[in-house]
Amino acid sequence: MLMYLPHQERLDNEILNAVLAERESADFEHYSANDVKIALKKSFLDLEDFKALLSPAAAPLLEDMMWAAKAAKERYFGKNIYLFTPLYISNHCENLCVYCGFNSRNNIRRAQLDDDGIIKELESIASAGFEELLMLTGEAPAFSSVDYIANACRLASERFATLGIEVYPLSVENYAKMHENGSDYVTVFQETYNPRRYAQLHLEGDKTAFGYRFEAQERALKAGMRGVAFGALFGLDMWRQDALSVGLHASLLQKRYQDAEISISVPRLRPIINNSKITPKDVRERELAQIICAYRLFLPFANITLSTRESVKFRDNAVKFGVSKVSAGVKVGIGEHGDDKAGQGDGQFEISDSRDGEQMRAMLRLNGLVPVESEHVFLG
């Protein structure tokens, strides 16, 4: 297991060690239905309460968890549901991650947008009414250099009120460069917090370094970013341990950086080009709902994001009980927002919910919720 490669920046390992120790020692069979009921009556949960909500004992009490999660969400977010859309500008990747459609050995159409292509995509997305954009690349510094991504951030920040990035983990200095060019939050998925399983799934490239990836959010905050997003990819390893790790990681970082905006995503595995058999297996929608409720009650102030990997029916229900942020109008290929709907490069995975922004806004209003495009002002 590679924690760091020689060229990678290191921070202290206090949070990393704390998360791995809790993950290793967690015994979810220890908790009873009574432990779950006690947790559901609390306004602020401790780590033991969080574990109880993730335990098998909580599964029969899922409806109670959903009502409690709904109350917590409305206490902190009211009826607001935030909308955003992703823009993939490159699918070149130097990593070999066995579950990912972008992996370096997968035979897909590779493409990277130039300035004109990026601007066309940005203007097409902006015309659909979105004010928040998440810009993504594959993890290939040789193609998507720091200067290339920074320039794309500059172009996007001229057209969107809120800009996040989901690219390969960067140093503090390079996150600062992204911030100077208009990005103010960073998403990094650890995929799985099990170092042994991580090593089995990530076979080549900088992504083999577990520790460097783990500390990406902290480096982003040190660089001045407003917020950071966390997530495991459910289906890669035992979901209870990974959900515990995500929540604890976010909680410990929030204590260290109290002004940071924290977001959590809950993706599950999806089929990819050339491998349609990839699925989340034992992480069914019922287990995903339990994870969302546990996150909402343990970290009630955090945004919980649900992507178009999930079905229309599940997303329409999840915004009622726990989720506060959803994507819409999603295209996972390169150059698919413009006139050429086929795009130039293939996508990372299959989506389930293909609704555009107007359709998502209409659904939210129909359910008594308020679609919010952005409420931030970037001040640099």
Morphology: globular
Estimate percent helicity: 25-40%
Write down the overall mean pLDDT. Answer: 95
Tally the beta strands. Answer: 11
Order of helices and strands: HHHHEEHEHEHEHEHHEHEHEHEHE
Rg computed from alpha carbons, rounded to a whole number of angstroms? 20 Å
Distance between the termini: 38 Å
Describe the protein in words.
- This protein is an alpha/beta fold.
- The strands form 2 sheets. An 8-stranded parallel barrel has the order 1-3-4-5-7-8-9-10, surrounded by 7 helices.
- α1 runs antiparallel to α11, α3 runs antiparallel to α11 and α4 packs across α12.
- The protein is globular, with a radius of gyration of 20 Å.
- It starts with 13 loop residues before the first helix and ends in an 8-residue tail after the last strand.
- The model has no long low-confidence stretch (mean pLDDT 95).
Give a summary of the structure in a few sentences.
The protein has helices spanning 14-25, 33-40, 47-54, 62-77, 115-126, 146-157, 172-180, 195-201, 210-214, 216-222, 239-256, 285-298, 312-321, 357-366, and strands at 80-90, 96-97, 132-137, 162-166, 185-187, 202-204, 227-230, 261-265, 303-306, 325-327, 370-372. The protein is an alpha/beta fold and 380 residues long.
Keywords, separated by commas or semicolons:
globular, 8-stranded parallel barrel, 380 residues
Element layout with pairings:
Blueprint: H1 14-25, H2 33-40, H3 47-54, H4 62-77, E1 80-90, E2 96-97, H5 115-126, E3 132-137, H6 146-157, E4 162-166, H7 172-180, E5 185-187, H8 195-201, E6 202-204, H9 210-214, H10 216-222, E7 227-230, H11 239-256, E8 261-265, H12 285-298, E9 303-306, H13 312-321, E10 325-327, H14 357-366, E11 370-372
Parallel strand pairs: 1-3, 1-10, 1-11, 3-4, 4-5, 5-7, 7-8, 8-9, 9-10
Antiparallel strand pairs: 2-6
Helix pairs in contact: 1-11, 2-3, 3-11, 3-12, 4-12, 6-7
